[in-house]
Amino acid sequence: PDCSVNEIKDPRLYMAVGGTSLSVVSLFCNSLIAIVLMRSKHTHFFFFALLAVSDTFLSVMYGPVIAMEIIKDVFREVWLNRIFWSYMPSLLTACNISMTFSTFLIILATTERFMITIKSDRLRWFRTHRGLLAGCALFLACLLKGGMFWEFVMLPNDPCRGTLLERELALTNLSLTVSYGKVFKFYLRNICTVLFPFIFLIFLNLYIVITLRKQQRAAALFRFATSRHKIDTRTMTNTKLQVRSATRLTVLIVCSFLVSNALNVAFTVVEFWDMDLLMMTIIFQMYEYGTDFVSVMYILVCATRLLVYVACNEEIRDEVHAFLCGRRYNRKGFMKQSNSNSKGASELDSIALTIARRLISSDLTETATMNDEESSDPHDGSNGKTVVIANGYTHCNTDDV
């Protein structure tokens, strides 16, 4: 038998190198996002914090799982091939679970933003059960994709021993059954993890955008000072602006997800329609390039996610700046200390001023009593005493008091 491996084409090699470079950038960006959002008090970014953790894991796994599959064929080393197939089944399963979990987290974040937009009565329940919902999403992802570990097996290929084809990939008996291999794996899994999330997020995203535009037009028509998602300048509160910013952030995250998964959805539809068509020589080569491109697009979206967060949301931008530099900037551009330091300083100043006021009041009472009982110096031109607080916060004259 022919035990040679086809030569790797340049496009696949370039995508492997480019994807690995992007995975390094994505690893740094998503690690930063995860640390910042996990340690902040902004609980409304809970799903995005978990999304950053999941994307960090996928960034680490891109090199060993996706790039290594191409690199081992480029260098044609048997020991690389053996190392790759020793960990590939478990890591591939973990990557698929993580990708599905990320998809469900985006659905949960968009659903919460949808409830805020329509002012749903169930919003309070949804917010108080974020952890439970995320746990259910992880369980569902494991249920749908965890079985991949038992769906294929590596069998020895004795005629090609000592070459890259010394092992061959084969389906297990579980995958060959109708109930699991066709109904569950092919139909149920693809519908729940690819087709349904894609269609659901499209319609939900469009509804949120249309609703926001209607609210803004109504506010402009009736000359409201603020719309439902704008800042109230009269009360100097930024709560509504934060809601609008978080909504815009969610919309962009969903759009990036839809763009990166569009080709994957197209492949899934073709697989439903005619799998034999993809196995044709010319189309299979395009199919192979396309699957690699889908992986690169997903890592590209993960790598640019920090830029989207910082550009669209001031809360996250302040938290990132505070984490990297130890200081925050307010909207006017003035630098301000972190909340813990400012809070501690304000409390200390308040206590000091309170004590100082009490001392001033007691001193003034004693001074007034002594002035009534004792005669004042006729050659002294001043009628009062000067009171100075040593800490520099208060300088006052008894006459003014």
UniProtKB/TrEMBL annotation:
Matches recorded under InterPro entries: GPCR_Rhodpsn_7TM
GO cellular component: membrane
Domain G-protein coupled receptors family 1 profile: 19-309
Primary subcellular site in the record, as a coarse category: membrane
Subcellular location: Membrane
Xref: SUPFAM superfamilies: Family A G protein-coupled receptor-like (SSF81321)
Membrane-spanning residues: 14-38, 45-67, 87-110, 131-150, 186-210, 249-273, 293-312
CDD domains listed in its UniProt record: 7tmA_FMRFamide_R-like (cd14978)
The entry's keywords: Membrane, Transmembrane, Transmembrane helix
The name this protein goes by in its record: G-protein coupled receptors family 1 profile domain-containing protein
Native species: Pristionchus entomophagus
